[in-house]
Amino acid sequence: MSNQKRRNFQIEAFKHRVVVDPKYADKTWKILEHAIHEIYNHNASGLSFEELYRNAYNMVLHKFGDKLYSGLVTTMTVHLQEISKSIEAAQGSLFLEELNRKWNDHNKALQMIRDILMYMDRTYIPSTLKTPVHELGMNLWRDNIVHSSKIRTRLLNMLLELVLRERTGEVINRGLTRNLIKMLMDLGCSVYEEDFERPFLEVSSEFYWGESQKFIECCDCGDYLKKAERRLNEEMERVTHYLDAKSEKKIISVVEEEMITNHMMGLIHMENSGLVNMLLDDKFVDLGRMYDLFCRVPNGLLRIREVMTSHIRDTGKQLVSDPERLKDPVEFVQRLLDERDKYDNIITLSFNNDKTFQNALNSSFEYFINLNPRSPEFISLFVDEKLRKGLKGVSEEDVEIILDKVMMLFRYLQEKDVFEKYYKQHLAKRLLSGKTVSDDAERSLIVKLKTECGYQFTSKLEGMFTDMKTSQDTMQGFYASHPQLDDGPTLTVQVLTTGSWPTQPSVTCNLPAEMSTLCEKFRAYYLGTHTGRRLSWQTNMGTADIKAIFGKCQKHELNVSTYQMCVLMLFNNADRLNYKDIEQATEIPASDLKRCLQSMACVKGKNVLRKEPMSKDIWEDDAFFVNDKFTSKFYKVKIGTVVAQKESEPEKQETRQRVEEDRKPQIEAAIVRIMKSRRQLDHNNIIAEVTKQLQLRFLANPTEIKKRIESLIERDFLERDDTDRKLYRYLA
Amino acid sequence: MGIQKDRVRFNVGGRLFETTAETLANAGRNSIFGAMFDENWTVQTDNSSEYFIDRNPDCFSILLDLLRTGELYIPVDIPEKLLYREALFYGLLAHVRSSKWGPFDGNRLQLSRSITGQAPGDGTAIRAGPDGGCCVAHGSMVHVYDWMLDEHAPITLDYQRVNDVGWIDSQSIVISVCERLGRGDGGMGLFSSSTGELRHKFQVNHDNQVKSFTAGALSFSSDCKIFSSCKGRSNEYGIGVWDQVTGKQIDFFYEPLGWSLGDADKLQWLHGSNCLLVASLFPRKDNCYISLLDFRDKKMAWSWSDIGAPTTVDEKRVRDAIAMEENSSICVVNEYEDLGFMDFRNTAGSIRWSSRSRLMKWKMPDEPCYPKLALHEGQLFSSMNDSISVFCGPDWVLTSRLGRSYGGSICDFSIGGDRLFALHSEENVFDIWETPPPPII
C-alpha cells in the first residue's frame, strides 16, 4: 500500500514518554527552525549539514519526533503564507512569473529541508503514518498558495487566457505556461484536474462550439475539414508542449464533439461541396480527410458509407436503365467497369482500404447490376468482344487485369446460369470460327470461372476445348489414312459432343456432290474408329473458303458460311436461279436462306450475286445471277452473314426459356438433396434453404420452387404431412 | 552529486578515512552522503579539509567497505545491532539488508539462524514478510519479527485463536481469528507490523447487517483485494472479499450446497486466471474439496472433490494443495508426501499421483505434522516431519532436502523476502534459511 492508501486508517495520537530534559528538545528545535528560516531566505551557505542532520537524528532518537514534525509544519506554513502575500502583490503578467519563481524556490528549500530531516522521513514518519516531508511540502504549498482565495481564480483565468491567446494566433511564453501547469501536476492529479483541466475543457468546448458555427456558415466542406484537422493537430501539439499527457484524449474528444459530431450531417450534405460532390469530382484528398476525421467519432463512417451507398445505387440504377446505354453492350459494361474503378480508387486512396466500404461498394453494385435482366448477356458480350479482337497486342498481365475486372462484375450477378448460357454460345462461335485472340486468355477466364463457381459450372466449357483439340487429331488421322484425297476440296470437321455445345436441332442441308462424298468418307472413317457413336452434320455452323473467278480474270478467294457455299456452288452449273430453285436444291431453312442470300446479293462490296428485281429484302420470286462485275481490292473476301450481334427479341425469349428449363432439374436436385438429409421440413424453410444452395448460380424464384415441390410430390419423392399441410416429408 | 574533487576525507569519531566521490555515489541520493554533497549544500570543512562526522569509526569502516565492494563483512567483535543502528543513521540500512543474503534459490539454502520464543502452545502458522521479516502465530498471539530478527510488539485480536496471518506490505499484517460467541469479537484485523497497533477491523455485512464471523484462510491479490474464508452464525458461509485501500467488504461468494468454502484450509489468488483457489481438506472436513472461484460471474470455474472415492485408498488423502499457473495444474500432497497433479483446464480430472511415491512406512513421530506445499519461482517445496524437500524441473525431481533434527516436526513454512522460514511444532522454535551472497569469483 502506498502512503496515500495507508492514511485511510485511524491513527492514534502519539503518546511519548516523560521528557527528561525539555530544554534539550527546545534548544535543538531552535537550531533546526533557524536553519529552515535561513534556507527560505537564501542564506543557507553558513549552515552545517552534518550538524543539522545530527540534531534532527537526535531529536527522533530521543522520541521528540512529533515536536520536530509539528514544528516543521508550523514553520513551513508561516513561510508559505508570506510567500503567498508576495505573489498576491505581483501586478499583471508579473503574477505568473512571481508564482513560478517562488515555486522553484520552494522546491529547492523543500529538498534541503528533507535532506536535514532524512532520518525522520525514514523512521518516524512510516511508523506514525504521517505524511512524508516532500509530500507535506507539496500539500502545504497547495493549501497556502494554489488554493488561496486570491490566487486560485487569478491563476486559472490567466492560464486559460494564455491558451485562448495561443488559439487566436498569438505567441505566448510556453515555457512559463508549462512550468505552472507542471506545478499543478506535481501537486497531484486531483489538483491538476480540478484547478485546471476541467475548466480548460469547458472553455475549450465553448470556444469550438462558436468556431464551428462560424466555419460551417462561411466555409465549404473541404475547407471546414481542413480547419478541423488543423485544430485537432494544434490541440495535440499543445498537450505535448505544456499539458499532462492524460489530457490529450479529453481535449481531443471535445474538439471532435464540437467540430465533427455536431456537424456531421451538415458537412456530408453541404450544398455543392458535400460528400456526393467530392465523390463526383474525385477529390481524393478531401475524401481522405473526411474519412480520417469522421472515423474518430461514433457512427461517423457509417454516415459516409450510407451516403456513398445510396449515391452509387442511384447513379448505377440510372446507368443500367438508360435505354441509350443499352444499345452498345460493350460500352455498357465498360461504363460499369469505369464506375467500379472510380470507387475502388476512392476507397484505396481516401478510405484507407476500409473493408466495410468495400463491402458497401460490392453490395451497391450487386443491387443495381441485377436490376437489368440483360446484364449477364452484356457481360458475356463484353468478354466476347475482348476475346475476339479487343485484346490484340495487349500484354499478358493487362489481359489478366481485364479478365479479373470482368470476374468482379460476374460475381455481382445473381443469374450466373444465364451468363453461362450466353458465354457458351459466344464461346462456341469463337471456337468454331477460329476467331479467338488468345487461347491462354480463354483458358485463364475458364479457370477463374471454375474457382468462382466450381467444376460443374465450367465442365461443359472445358469439354468444348477438348472437342476442338480432338477434332484436330481426328482430321490428321483422316487425311493420313486417305492420301488420295489431296487433290479435291479440303474438309475440316469439328466433332462436337452433344450437350457440351449450344447446338440447335437443325435440318441438314444438301451439300454439293463433291462435298457430300467427302463427308461420307469422313463419316465412314470416324464411325470406323469410334464405334457406337452417331454423327450428324451441323451445316448451319460451318464455314468454307472457295475460289471464284468473276468475269474474265477477277480471281478471288471467298470466305463464306456452309450455307453460302452451297448456294454459290449451284452457280457452277447455272447462270440464273430462282429463289424457289435454290431452296429446293439446297433445302436450307427459309429464314437462314434469306439471310444468306441477303448477305451475298444486297451488301455493298460483298455482292458476289445479283438479284432481280433489285431490293433490300429477299422475296420468294426473286431471281439470282453471278455478279460478273464484282470487284474487290482484296484477294480474300469475307462474306459475313447478316446477324445481329445482340440477340433479337424472340431469340432473347428463347434463351430465357431455355435457362428456365435448365433451372428446373437443378431446383429439384437441390430440394431432394436437402430433404434427404433433413427428412422433413416446412415450406418456408425449404424455400430458404434451396435459395441459399442455388444462389451461387442464380436466384431461384419461390413460385418456381413451389412448382418443383409439387412436381416432386406427384412423382412420389416427397409427401405432405397429413395434419400440417405446410410440412413436407422425404420418401426414400 | 556536486563533489568537485575526486578524493574525500572524513573524520569519523576521531579516525580519518579517505575515499572517492565515486564510492560515495554508491550510497544513493537518499543517504546522508547523497544529501551532504548535493549542490544545495555548502559543505563545511575544517581547515584540514576533512568532513567531520560524530559517529562510531569501526562501523563507518565496515559500511565504507560495503559501499566500495557491495559486500558486507561484520567482524565478530561488532554487535550486528550496533552496525544496523549506524547504517540507519547514514541511510544505508537497505544496502546492508540486500548484501546480507543473496537472491533466493531453494537448492543453495543454508540455515542462518533459529529463533526460540516463549509461546506456550503449538505453532499455527508462519508467514514471511516481503522484506525478510516474518510473523508467527501461536494460539491467540502473533509474534512479529523484522528482517534483523528483532521482535516487535505481538499482535492479538480480542485474544481469539488465530487461524491465519498474512502480510499486505512490510508495514501491515492481517490476522484472521475465531469469533467469540455473542460478543461480536474476533473476525479479521489489520495491524501495523512495527508497532502492533490495530488499524482496521474488517466486517462482514449480510442483508445490510454487520455480522460477527470466524475468519479462516487468507489470500491477497495484486489488485489490492483481501480474501478470507468466513463462517458466520447463520448464512455467512463462504469467501469474503475486502478492498485493501478502503477496508470495506466488496464481495461475498456464498458456499454452494454440498460444497465447502467457509471451512477452507487454503486460499490462493491466481493472477493469470483471475480466480481464487479454495481448498477445504481432511481432517478439518471429512472430504476434500478443491475449487477455483471466478468472482466476476460468481461461478466455480473448476472443482474437484474426493467424495465417493473408495476408502481403500486412504493413504492417498489430500493434505495440501497449491495451484501452479505456469503448468495450468494443481499440485496436491498426501500424508506420506506423495505428490499428485491435476490439470485445471480439464473439468473432470482425477489426481495423477507421482510415481516417485516412496511408500514411506517409517515410524511416524509422536506428533505428526501434515505436509505443506509452497511454490517459488518454479521450485516446489514440500514439508514432511522435520525436513523440507525441494523439487525442480518439469517432472518435479527431488533436488534438495532441508533438514534439522532439533525442534520436532515442521508444522508450517513460508518463503518471502528471499528467505525461507520453517516453524517447528515442538520447542517453539523457527528456522531461517537463506541463500548465501554470491561467491567472490
TrEMBL record, chain A:
Which residues, by range, are in coiled-coil regions?
none
Q: Which UniProt keywords apply?
A: Isopeptide bond, Ubl conjugation, Ubl conjugation pathway
Q: Name one GO molecular function term.
A: ubiquitin protein ligase binding
Domain Cullin family profile: start-end pairs: 374-601
The UniProt entry's sequence similarity note says: Belongs to the cullin family.
Among PANTHER family, the record links this protein to: CULLIN
Q: What is this protein called?
A: Cullin family profile domain-containing protein
UniProtKB/TrEMBL annotation, chain B:
Where do the BTB domain residues begin and end?
A: 6-76
**InterPro entries on file:** Beta_prop_At2g24240, BTB/POZ_dom, T1-type_BTB
What CDD domains would the database entry show?
BTB_POZ_KCTD-like (cd18316)
Q: In which pathway does it act?
A: Protein modification; protein ubiquitination
Q: Which SMART domains match?
A: BTB
Q: Tell me, which GO biological process terms does this entry list?
A: protein homooligomerization
Q: What is this protein called?
A: BTB domain-containing protein
